[in-house]
Amino acid sequence: xxxxxxxxxxxxxxxxxxxxxxxxxxxxxxxxxxxxxxxxxxxxxxxxxxxxxxxxxxxxxxxxxxxxxxxxxxxxxxxxxxxxxxxxxxxxxxxxxxxxxxxxxxxxxxxxxxxxxxxxxxxxxxxxxxxxxxxxxxxxxxxxxxxxxxxxxxxxxxxxxx
Length: 162
Known about the structure:
Helices cover 46% and strands 21% of the residues. The protein contains six helices and four strands, in the order H-H-H-H-H-E-E-E-E-H. A hairpin with a 2-residue loop joins strand 3 (112-120) and strand 4 (123-132). The model is unreliable at 74-87 (pLDDT under 50).
């Protein structure tokens, strides 16, 4: 079953790198819940998340989809990784802010995918923009508004539930 091979391969690569699940999720720019969905092939992840996962695990481009589709043996990930070609997608840094951690990927056409993650009530939460022409500062402003609304809702819900 390809999703089991995918899950096993991600788990093994994570362990080989000495990463906790939350650390890997942060490197990918997703919540642990989203990472679980990627591992179990429950949803179709965004391209930038797949790219970030492959980079974080030192996998060659396309390995995630090969494992997910069952077109490669999960033990093949043990081969020496080939670096991701920078002309396809390149990860631009990230920054920690009072609003959370902002990471982004820049595409060759100049557009960027942004993810802002923050721990709210003990769980990593995130907000994202895809194919945006905003600067990192503008994206941070937009995404932090979304996270502030989510945080207000979650805090109100927690107070209501006791």
